[in-house]
Each structure stands twice: as C-alpha cells, then as structure tokens.
Amino acid sequence: MITKRNILRIIVLILSVSARANAAELVFPHFAQGGGYLTTFSLTNLSDIAGAATIHLITQSGTPFLDLPVTLPANGTSNLTVGSGALVVGWVRVTTTSAIFLSGSETIQRMAGGSVLAETMVPSATADTAFRFPVTERDTVSTGLALANPGATTARLTVAIRNPSGSVVASTGLPLVPSQQVARFVSEFFRGITPFEGSIQVESSTPITAIAVRQSSSGLFSSLPSVPVTGVSESFFSPNGGIFPRILQEIQRAQISIDIAMYSFTRDAMTDALIAAKSRGVSIRVITDSGQAPQAGSEIARLESLGVPLKRIPGSGNAIMHNKYAIFDSRVLLTGSYNWSETAETRNFENAIFIREFTIVNSYQANFNSIWNNH
Fold it and tell me: Of 91, 154, 273, 325, which one's alpha carbon is 20 to 30 angstroms from that of 285?
C-alpha cells in the first residue's frame, strides 16, 4: 500500500548538476530505489581525458548503503540503474577519481507491470544556508521537503511557515548531523495546519541541500522552485533610513550566534537587544577598538559587566580597529560605514548592507575568527 509518507520517499526525480573543478562532486538530496522503484544515474565526462566516478548512495541515517563505480570515457556518458530489494531512501554523493569535468542526472521511476506510473523533474540542488518554497496543504494536495547534510558538521535548522501576508505562523528547530537526510511533508513538520497556503522557510547554520515537491492525492507530483533567499541583499542609508530597526530585527531573529566587530558602540537599545538574545541562549562575541571603547556614552563597559565576551583591541601597528560589521547565525552579514550610534542613525550620511551570500558571509566569519583568536 502506498501511503502519503511513502510517496514522498519515492519521489521521482531527475536532477542535473554540472561541476567545473577537479575531483568534481555532485550531490543529490534525495533518492529512492528498490521495492518496485528504479534509479538510473547518467554521468557525462565533459573532458578530453578518460576518468572514473563513484556513486555513493547514503541512507537517511547517514549510513553508506551502496557504492557504484562508473567508468567514464573521454567526452562519454555512462548510465547505471539500480532497483533491487526492499525500498531504500536517502541521498547521493558522486565523486571522481581523476581531474575531469563532470555533469550528471538522477532519474527515479515508480514502476508497475513494466510501466512508469509517475515521474517529475527538479532543478539541481546546490548547498546553501537558506531556502524558501511555496506551500499548499489541503485534502488533495500536499507539499514535502527533503533535506540532506553533505557537510562535516551538524547543521542547526530552523523551519518556519509563513502565511500569504508573510507572517510566520509556526516554526520548529531540528539538528541535521553530518550525512543525515530528512524527508517530511509540511503537515508532519507542523501538525494541524491543514488547510494552509503560503511558504516554508528553511535556515541552516551550515550549508545543506534541499528540494521540495507538490504531491496530489492521485500520486502525481511535481518539483517546486526555491524562492531566492541567499544572494539577496538589502541596502539602507542614513540619516533615518531604517538601519537601526533593521539591525534590531536581525538580533531578535538570531538563534545561534552573533559576532560583532564595531568601532563605535553607543546605542543602549542595541545592548538591550543583545542581552535579551544572550538570555535565550544565543552566543555573542564583540570586538571593538581599544581607544574608542572608554569614550563617553560607550556601551562596551556595560556589555562586559553583563558577561558578554568582548575584546578591546587596536589595529595593526597600534592603529585603530575600524571594522563595522556583524554576522548573525553565520548566515547573514551586516557591513558598511554605519557605527552602532544615535548619530549614525539620525545625522550622518551612512550606509549599511545585509548580505546572505554564503561565500561572502563565510569570508567575514573567517576574518572575525582570525582577529578574535589572535588578540
């Protein structure tokens, strides 16, 4: 008997990924094989030299299930089909053993009497820290998510649903350990929400892969596009351009960590927000300029007295620590000319930009960690 849960787990996928690097790696966040389901991998060598790849099928718990070696002639394509035994679901990593450029696709088919009953297509999955998908939950239509962690550290996920007006109506958190995969319907994340129309938002402390499907009660399903989240930036300008309330909003949203490198910090309302975040378990670190910290109106001494880890440092060669940036949950970066002060908000010409591009955020996180660890 095909249940609603099993249908999600046997999603028919055609996934394509291209890689332009030596020792290319492809990641597919969901597969289903066995129990009447066939999975076909098609890998194409885009290089003028022969090579080889290994297709690693990994179960939802992160346990290796099957390794499939594939020989790849120069500019050639190799196909491999699996589907014997009981139904197994999880995710897939494809690695190469030589310096080739690789592209690939994965096709999963639900079969009956030699005929294909259903199939669909989804875009290639790229590891990221934030995703947004449209959601429909009613008697005849459901939305499902498959989330896989290809990284080496545990990903801390926040999953939330938003109504058509954009308001968060429910949220939940879960860890995703290295190599683990989770596949659930939205109604399984949030009990009792049917009927519901809106969107689902996934935010992660480290990059993961994700896909979503729309499933009808007849058994047909289709992939859903991800609304851009990372890569989207917001810019603000002072005076009175909304930078201050936008920073407060990001502090209030933080679930895991806030790292701040700020030359001048005199806005007491920001300290209040940080202390509230600290009280709900958010890890906070502050780097500030050693010469600016003791100036009149500075919030630095108050932060120290309230137990916030903080370092007062000069710049190189006894210059100044002039950075003005903050990182929220290692996924959102605030940077620009804006100091955390009343003057910066109401009088100065200042700029601030919020960035959600992982590579950029990661470079700032590395810079913060370097400064912190070496002073």
Answer: 154
Domains in the chain and their CATH numbers?
4-118 (2.60.120.380), 128-223 (2.60.290.11), 233-373 (3.30.870.10)
Q: Give the DSSP H or E segment for 342.
A: helix 342-346
Distance CA 271, CA 251 (A): 10
229: pLDDT confidence band, cut at 50, 70 and 90? low
Active-site residue, from 67, 268, 322, 375 = 322
CA–CA dist 47, 114 (Å, integer): 36
Query: What is the band of 199 on the pLDDT scale with cuts at 50, 70, 90?
Result: very high
* pLDDT, position 18: 32
User: Is 329 considered catalytic here?
Assistant: yes
pLDDT tens figures, 281-335: 999 999 999 999 999 999 999 999 999 999 999 998 889 999 999 999 888 999 9
Query: What gap in Å lies between CA 186 and CA 144, rounded to an integer?
Result: 6
For the cut 70, the answer to whether the pLDDT of residue 158 exceeds it is yes
Residues present in the chain in total: 375
Token digits for 53? 């790849």
Distance separating alpha carbons of residues 287 and 107, to the nearest angstrom? 50
Separation between Cα atoms, residue 170 and residue 191, nearest integer Å: 10
Catalytic residue among 128, 259, 289, 329: 329
Tokens of 54: 């290994």
Told to judge if 324 belongs to the known catalytic residues of this protein, a careful annotator would answer yes
Bond from prior residue into 207 cis (ω within 30 degrees of 0): no
Least confident segment among 82-96, 223-237, 345-359: 223-237
**Pairing between β-strand 283-289 and β-strand 257-262 as defined by DSSP bridges:** parallel
Please give the model's pTM, rounded to 2 decimal places: 0.62
Question: What gap in Å lies between CA 288 and CA 41, rounded to an integer?
Answer: 53
Which tokens belong to 262? 């700020």
Q: Is residue 277 helix, strand or coil?
A: helix
